[in-house]
Structures are given as C-alpha cells and as structure tokens.
Amino acid sequence: MGFALAEECAKRGAKVTLVAGPVALSASKRIERIDVESGEEMYHAANKAFKTADVAILCAAVADYKPLNEAKEKIKHSEGNMQLELISTRDIAAELGKQKTNQQLLVGFALETHNEEFHAKEKLKKKKISTLSSSTACETRALPFKQTTIKLTLSVPLRTKHLKKKPKNARGKKTSSTRWKYSYNARSRLANPSHR
C-alpha cells in the first residue's frame, strides 16, 4: 500500500521520499527511496524526512514490541520452554504528531481486529493524526499485507467514510484524492467551527 501511495503522489507532481523496510518491491526513479532494516532505523529516517515535508503518510507495519536482548548468534534448541522479555518500540506516529505544525498533514494507517471505527477515532486524538485509514482482519481472519486488494475506513476528526474493497494500486489513487479532501475540510472546520 505504501508503494502504491508513493507512486500515485509522485504521478501527481509531489516530491516523494519513501522510507521502506526490507521488501521485494521496486519504486520508480522519480521517488527518493531510503531503505531501512529495523523500526529504530525507520524512526530516525521518518523524523529526518518529516522536518521538510508537507505531508507524511505512515503505512508501514512496524512492530509495537521487540526483544529486550538481541541474540548475536542462533539460539539453539534446548529442553523446556523459553521466555522472551519484550520492550516497546518507538512510536513513529506519536512522535511525528508531537512535531506536526498547522501547515503539515499526518496520515496514518491502522490494522484492527475489533471495534475498528472506535480505535481509529482514539488513535486520531491520541497521536494528533490528521486523517487515518483503517482496515480490519476480523472478516476473513486474514492479514492484508500480502493481499492485492484492501478495504479501508477513512477517518478524520469530524467524519468517517467507508471505502469499498479495491486493488491496492487503485485504492492508492482513490484514497489519495479522498484523503486530501477530507483532511482539508476537517482542518477548515476545526479552525472555524461555525463553518459547515
């Protein structure tokens, strides 16, 4: 989804910086691509890129937790069970939300298993995200990462719109148009509550 959105934004004339994890996908030459291996590397790359960006679209599925200790060698099999202690990873969306100015838009993505709309609204408020696209794994119990189609719910502080399932490249094009319109209208209403 991130690559589809990056390509669509570039087609529309935007100067695009794509921070990508270890994936077997290619991007066109008009996109500046920054490859990272870990969530920590993505955190730093996203923070650096956001300083000069008008819009940030966050749709990488960064893990919320990571092992406290990183093994330098293979952990060999042994008798009995093993316990791994996990620690929280850096929250890229929350950090960029703190930095966001009134001239910047912060676009987030979320995967939920239940109460999708409720959690989307909570994330908008908590992380100061301008607009959020959410999807759910509860219908088919299948994660959307390897699927070629996706069904989204688009949320802004004042409205929610359910988008039909479409191929990701087509959804990237449609979502780009809908998201900018919703974000602009929502920002206008928040700046002037009497405007409807």
Salient structural properties:
alpha/beta; 5-stranded mixed β-sheet; 196 residues
Provide a descriptive summary of the structure in words.
There is one protein chain. The protein is an alpha/beta fold and 196 residues long. It contains five helices and nine strands. The strands form three sheets. A five-stranded mixed beta sheet has the order 3-6-7-8-9. The protein has a two-stranded parallel sheet with strand order 1-2. β6 (105-112), α4 and β7 form a beta-alpha-beta unit. α1 (2-11) crosses α5. The longest helix has 24 residues, at 168-191. The model is unreliable at 177-196 (pLDDT under 50).
List the helices and strands and how they pair.
Blueprint: H1 2-11, E1 17-20, E2 32-35, H2 39-50, E3 55-58, E4 65-67, E5 86-88, H3 92-99, E6 105-112, H4 116-127, E7 131-136, E8 149-156, E9 159-167, H5 168-191
Parallel strand pairs: 1-2, 3-6, 6-7
Antiparallel strand pairs: 4-5, 7-8, 8-9
Helix pairs in contact: 1-5
